[in-house]
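Box 3.1 A note on notation
Throughout this textbook, protein chains are presented in two layers. The first layer is the amino acid sequence; the second is a token string describing backbone geometry. Keep the layers aligned when reading.
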Amino acid sequence: MAEVAFSKAERAYLAETIKRYFADELDQEIGGLQAEQVLDFLTVTLGPVFYNRGLQDAEAALSKKMDDFSEVIRALEMPLPVKR
């Protein structure tokens, strides 16, 4: 799997969100570099858990759709003629 890479805009948004969380919830002011370090830590340690859950959810949704398709295909089957 490739390493997660955020765009500059995404990285700035995430770092600003982390700074705001620290200020609002923890009464602790941190700088941009510290927020990016927290972001890097969370990306490496927690990111795979969220990523894998997303894959599991996508697989479950696709599996359900495939079941739906199977039902539609079975409904199209033609009955075999009955021998008399």
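The chain has two domains: 8-45, 46-76. The chain has a mean pLDDT of 94.
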